[in-house]
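User: I'm writing a tutorial on reading structure tokens. Could you give me a worked example: one chain, its sequence, then its tokens, then a sentence or two explaining what the tokens reveal?
Assistant: Sure. Here is the example chain.
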Amino acid sequence: MHKFFVPQENFNGNEVIINGEDVKHIYKVLRLKEGQSININNCNGQEFLAEIFSIGKAEVKCNIIKEIFLNNESPLKINLYQGLPKAAKMDLIAQKAAEIGVVSITPVITERVVVKNELGEYKKIDRWNRIALEASKQSKRTIIPKINDVVQFENMINEIKGLDLIVVPYEEQENYGIKSLIKDIEKDKISTAAVIIGPEGGFQSSEIEQLKEVGAHIVTLGPRILRTETAGFVCSSLLMYELGDMGGK
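And here are its predicted structure tokens:
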């Protein structure tokens, strides 16, 4: 069944109004008709079964049939901190990280990040959030992961201190990977995690030392060096498999 995220202000009792880009998608792409059922999420984690009763070019009106008690979120809440990459790589990162199940994505300016127009990167946040929204629809997420504003490395260090687990893939780490990490931690005490990925040029050794000081686990993902846009997916997926719900029961 098709799913749509609708802000809470569009709810009025049992009536819900869908507007914006979803309207055209409903009548022109999906060719849904009046009387058909859809799933609606209020952007706060609540899901509803609804029936379309009016389709116009500006809005689609629906009646809520019942609330659906559905939670497709992982018990492991991963916050992905991504060294700001070049070109359109953040588009791919936003899309795939949302599919995997991360709860937030924060672009980070590290020493080796080259930012030609920092203001331009901030302006991309809206696009990245739209990409995450579309990925959340496709993957049946219960929440929409948030793409946060770009932060400096030092600000990230302060943000991650309160999390249960901090994992940093690093190309110069050897013989200590996710398998070893899982043996060293108390799995039942881990509910929040940070996955921190360096930019194309990797982390400076001084940055790795700063991460170690706040309790980060520096790991290898294996003998092959992964691109910055790949490393976050792989590391998050491995943690989701070991500590979350990826792979099923």
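What the tokens reveal: The mean pLDDT is 93. Residues 228-243 form the longest helix (16 residues).
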